[in-house]
């Protein structure tokens, strides 16, 4: 069931009406049933995977807390991690590793015929697997206490607004909101409604329309003139941002209307001036998860420069692989790791560029850093979106001007892309700048009534008149 469909609208109206009528305990039971219906709408058979993760982590959490001996605590933690990563690895990576092994041995002239599985990737498995794993790890670290309310814990795992594409919530943040009665208010309802409206605008008007520019280019076998690759990369940079941020905003809005506070997952990422800041702004729930449960346990920056580089590279390689079972994602993760390492090397040199606060030179240097790093991020998106590594490298070659020849039809299409990008992105850019300057995530609320009303009218008209039809899936459903 997709947020951007009539089916979900009917579903949520029913769920929200019941939510307003029921007492706290029955609210939770109803939300759990609704979450299972929401997830089972795609394929009811995959509900078994959620139930397995839920039962195993509920049991392991209690046993970790009850065990006095450290070795027993580690055994139950290992059971939780093995089951969760085992399910994720089997359904998401089995075919990838089998096919990669076949390609590797073929380099030596050998031939093998590995077993592959004809299975569909369960939607959202990467998200709820990480969410449940963080629960048992935090109990093991004695940062939280386990809950003995099984159905409330099951709701934490399957809460439908953020189940299939995040944010990846931590138990220490979301579970207390499930275990205690929520408070509803007109202000929360209004904020929630705006977040849903804004998220739909990002998804249906911006992301889905940009997809119609991006998909034909990546579906083709070339040639790829450099200008076409440049504009397509810009289009995808905003497509993936609006697609994923749109989902996160809708999830936050749905939660807020029911009294839940779901974390902000995107905080103006394209205003980042360096890779470290970018990952503090982009997919915050994943980047903080990787930091707390992978980067720091690997040693973080506590064991010297080279160990720090190793930890960064390993973390980003696994972060890239988390996004998808393909070598393009591995290369994208490696690229992000190299950016983080390069920034650490260059940081002492960059800190020499100091200007008087508020001066024109300082502002110019700030804009320059944003501009340069945005384009570094865009280069990485080529790996992320490419169908395979060969296509990615071919696009890089074209972007560098090595291959520029193309038919007039392709060149004409390229020249039409820039005004189309401006048409779809002008309001987004305006509101992002407004949020950045006012340091408020919902800066639109601070505008005069006439300006706010005008923006809402433009958004509504854009959605109704020019929103992409068909209820397209969100990009991150495949992860």
Notes on the protein architecture:
By secondary structure, the chain is an all-alpha fold. The chain has two domains: 6-181, no CATH class; 188-478, no CATH class. 71% of the residues lie in helices and 0% in strands. Helix 8 (186-219) packs antiparallel against helix 9 (226-257) and helix 9 packs parallel to helix 16 (408-438). The longest helix is centred in the N-terminal third of the chain and has 37 residues, at 70-106. The model is unreliable at 406-411 (pLDDT under 50).
Tally the beta strands: 0
Secondary-structure element pattern, one letter each = HHHHHHHHHHHHHHHHH
Fraction of helical residues: over 70%
How would you describe the shape? globular
Could you say which structural class the secondary elements and strand pairing correspond to?
mainly alpha
Largest sheet: none
Give the helix tally. Answer: 17
In terms of DSSP E residues, the strand content is under 5%
Instruction: Kindly provide the radius of gyration, computed on alpha-carbon positions and rounded to a whole number of angstroms.
Output: 23 Å
Stretches where pLDDT falls below 50 for ≥5 residues?
406-411
How far apart the termini lie comes to 16 Å
**Taking all residues together, what is the mean pLDDT?**
88
Concise synopsis of the structure shown:
The chain has helices at 6-21, 24-40, 47-66, 70-106, 125-140, 150-158, 171-179, 186-219, 226-257, 275-281, 284-295, 305-323, 327-350, 360-385, 389-399, 408-438, 449-466. The protein is 71% helix and 0% strand.
What is the secondary structure topology, with strand pairs?
Blueprint: H1 6-21, H2 24-40, H3 47-66, H4 70-106, H5 125-140, H6 150-158, H7 171-179, H8 186-219, H9 226-257, H10 275-281, H11 284-295, H12 305-323, H13 327-350, H14 360-385, H15 389-399, H16 408-438, H17 449-466
Helix pairs in contact: 1-2, 2-6, 3-4, 3-5, 3-6, 4-5, 6-7, 8-9, 8-16, 8-17, 9-14, 9-15, 9-16, 11-12, 12-13, 13-14, 14-15
